[in-house]
Amino acid sequence: MEFQHLGARPRIHRDAVIAPTAVISGDVEIGADCQVLHGAVITAEGGPITLGASVIVMENALIRASATHPVHIGDHTLVGPMASISGATIGEEVFLATGTRVFNGARVGERSEVRINAVVHLRTVLPAESVVPIGWVAVGDPAQLLSPDRHEEIWALQKDLDFPGYVFGLDRQTPDLMVQLTERYGSSLARHSRDERVD
């Protein structure tokens, strides 16, 4: 299914294959020989998404851009089932395994591997040919790789990256943070009520 969102509609190369249950919304460009499988969602929420040539987006993966955080995925990259990419840049020949999460402002270098259920955190930079082990967290610039049992160390690095400020423009110390966050984000997402199906 393809949708026009905020006046922009998807541009899909004639050689790309899009499953009928995939959702492509807004300012999305999909290159030659890409495969987007069942249940995948590629949604440009005010910022562009570009997929190079021969990118594979597997079942139930989510790719989301915002006005301040576009997404670019380089040629010959595989986005695994249930993986999530939000506002990040992914290099060429990258393997993002099942359940991986790549957050806003992150950059994953070419020929890197982010293995099953691993996380590349907000504003993290992975150099080319990096490997994030199964379930581990990459955080910072330059990236530090930490096992999930090292939560206090991960939080110490992550806290300064300021997720609510960087993604939502809200100070973490705001007394009613979640009220403001959900109202602001909900208002933005409500713009989908005016989407038009174009396929």
From TrEMBL:
InterPro entries: Hexapep (IPR001451), Transf_Hexapept/Carb_Anhydrase (IPR050484), Trimer_LpxA-like_sf (IPR011004). It comes from the Bacteria. Transmembrane segments: none annotated. It holds the Pfam family Hexapep. PANTHER family: DYNACTIN SUBUNIT P25, GAMMA CARBONIC ANHYDRASE-LIKE 1, MITOCHONDRIAL-RELATED. This is Transferase. It comes from Microbacterium terricola.
